[in-house]
Amino acid sequence: MREELVALSPDNSGYKRDLFVSNAKLGLFAIQQRNLPDAIEYYDKMVGMMEKLVKMAPSNHQWKRDLQKAQRDLERLKQKAKPNPDE
Asked: What kind and span of H or E run contains 65?
């Protein structure tokens, strides 16, 4: 539903922020379920959404911090998902 709202109102930063939060919650749930592929997918969507928000409002420092955190978290998830050659 939130994705539909963003599609209907692509300039509405509130809808985009809500979609970011929804993906964050779904990503955390996927991590708790030890489902790294889904978690990576949600975090990737989060990063894409925050990149758009930061472009819309480059002076919004909170969004910049959220983007940086999402990028770090995504990188950590990708590192965890890599096969360990020692195993």
From this structure: helix 61-81
Which class would CATH give 2-79? mainly alpha
Any residues with CB less than 8 A from the CB of 11 and at least 6 apart, and which?
A: 56
pTM, entire model: 0.80
Q: How far is it, in rounded angstroms, from Cα 43 to Cα 21?
A: 10
Which 3 state secondary structure label does DSSP give 57?
coil
Closest Cα to residue 69, out of 19, 21, 36, 6?
Answer: 21
Residue partners of 12: CB distance under 8 A and separation at least 6: 5, 6
Ordered mean pLDDT values, 10 residues apiece, the chain (87 residues): 63 81 93 95 93 92 94 95 73
Q: What is the pLDDT of residues 12-36, one digit of tens each?
A: 778 888 888 899 999 999 999 999 9
